[in-house]
């Protein structure tokens, strides 16, 4: 005759799908009742995904198969989120910021930070209250591109004040680390850093916070999406086919995290000669139109290779602000207004309800390691996005 203790002991072996910890360790088992041959188990889980429920039913039945004959499993779970939105009931650690735009790229060096800077300044020039959060922890270039290198961060209480320049509030990991300081980031550290950049910075009430992400798809992206309801993501790519392949991964990530896709910027699309102003094709042009169609999104702009863009980045004088008559500046302005229109359209729908972590605070939801192993956890295994 199985007892409640026997059943609970067997449930210790049932892992929560995608994680290394059991449903008992997570505290998801709320009640167990048995008369020895039949049992009723009440679970409360944080995922609304059908496949998580189905897997749990299967694993629990298997774990109890030799112990009791009749098993009844009641699972309480959150309501399923609407598609293409990330819902208003999820976590938001910076609620005074109206919209969050995640700027991503499949790989490094394609002009993600350059795009972030120029789109943000362009949006500010169009009357929006704008901020830039440089979350590219591996290569924070925003301070140089915004002319903030060497400037001391002002600390008020235990919070840091963003810099204000060209009408934009700016904070970067680069301004908080010593120059040249190299850090090796692990899952739990990345989570903490991203959360602090949102929570411990004195952000004003902003219309849009542009977030310059590290290249690729990893813990930083997932943490951001879990910390605030990201209004939309944009992808920056160059026109070569190899770059487009990497972009697909980035766009897939948005879909997986239920982040609406605001559009694609095709950067280094053609070359504008500074001498004759003629535009010529170098890496290809217009190749991301098909990608945009595939992901049911828009191309925000085709930005040419223009020396003025690079010079603006190197000297901390964004081209959109300092050379508004240049072709690039005009295209950034157009791209920003397209993005603003999209943000206004989807703003109310933003929610991250469906991707909340099921792990305790400080433990990476992407990690298969338990809380006690958090400091040595590697990302990989299961992740918290359902
Ligand atoms: N359209 C462009 N024309 C000329 N130079 C450009 C253009 N876009 C970006 N660059 C230059 O290319 C270099 C890389 O750009 P940027 O740092 O923005 O890329 P990134 O994708 O953010 O890189 P990382 O992922 O390494 O941070 C910079 O020197 C920048 O000034």
UniProtKB/TrEMBL annotation:
In terms of PANTHER family, this protein maps to: IRON-SULFUR PROTEIN NUBPL (PTHR42961:SF2)
GO term, biological process aspect, one: iron-sulfur cluster assembly
Entry's HAMAP family? Mrp_NBP35
| Low complexity: bias regions | 364-378
Q: How does it assemble?
A: Homodimer.
> Its biological function?
Binds and transfers iron-sulfur (Fe-S) clusters to target apoproteins. Can hydrolyze ATP.
Any one GO MF term held by the record is: ATP-dependent FeS chaperone activity
Q: Does the keyword Metal-binding apply?
A: yes
Q: What is this protein called?
A: Iron-sulfur cluster carrier protein
List, alphabetically, the Gene3D superfamilies matched.
Fe-S cluster assembly (FSCA), P-loop containing nucleotide triphosphate hydrolases
Q: Where does ATP bind?
A: 106-113
Q: Which UniProt keywords apply?
A: ATP-binding, Hydrolase, Iron, Iron-sulfur, Metal-binding, Nucleotide-binding
Similarity comment? Belongs to the Mrp/NBP35 ATP-binding proteins family.
């Amino acid at each position: 005759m199985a007892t409640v203790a026997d059943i609970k002991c067997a449930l210790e072996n049932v892992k929560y799908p995608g994680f290394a910890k059991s449903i008992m360790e997570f505290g998801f088992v709320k009640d167990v009742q048995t008369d020895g041959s039949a049992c009723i188990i009440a679970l409360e889980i944080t995922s609304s995904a059908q496949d998580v429920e189905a897997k749990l039913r299967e694993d629990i039945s298997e774990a109890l198969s030799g112990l009791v004959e009749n098993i009844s499993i009641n699972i309480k779970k959150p309501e399923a989120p609407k598609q293409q939105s990330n819902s208003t009931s999820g976590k938001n650690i910076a609620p005074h910021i109206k919209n969050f735009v995640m700027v991503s790229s499949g790989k490094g060096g394609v002009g993600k930070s350059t795009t972030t800077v120029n789109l943000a300044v362009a949006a500010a020039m169009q009357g929006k209250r704008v901020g830039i959060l440089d979350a590219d922890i591996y290569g924070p270039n925003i301070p140089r591109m915004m002319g903030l290198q060497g400037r001391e961060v002002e600390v008020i209480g235990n919070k840091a004040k963003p810099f204000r320049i060209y009408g934009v509030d700016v904070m970067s990991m680069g301004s908080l680390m010593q120059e040249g300081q190299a850090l090796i980031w692990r899952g739990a550290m990345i989570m903490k850093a991203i959360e602090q950049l949102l929570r411990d910075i004195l952000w004003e009430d902003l219309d849009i916070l542009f977030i310059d992400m590290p290249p690729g798809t990893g813990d930083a992206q997932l943490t951001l999406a879990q910390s605030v309801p990201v209004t939309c993501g944009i992808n920056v790519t160059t026109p070569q086919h190899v770059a487009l392949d990497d972009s697909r991964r980035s766009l897939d990530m948005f879909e997986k995290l239920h982040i609406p896709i605001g559009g694609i910027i095709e950067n280094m699309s053609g070359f504008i000669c500074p001498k004759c102003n003629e535009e010529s094709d170098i890496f290809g042009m217009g190749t991301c139109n098909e990608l945009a169609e595939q992901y049911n999104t828009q191309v925000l702009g085709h930005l040419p290779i223009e020396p003025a863009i690079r010079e603006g980045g190197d000297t901390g004088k964004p081209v959109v602000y300092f050379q508004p008559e240049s072709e690039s500046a005009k295209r950034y302005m157009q791209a920003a207004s397209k993005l603003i229109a999209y943000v206004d359209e989807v703003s109310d729908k933003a929610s991250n309800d469906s991707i909340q972590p099921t792990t305790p605070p400080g433990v990476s939801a992407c990690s298969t390691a338990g809380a006690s192993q958090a400091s040595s956890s590697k990302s990989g295994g299961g992740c918290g996005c359902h």
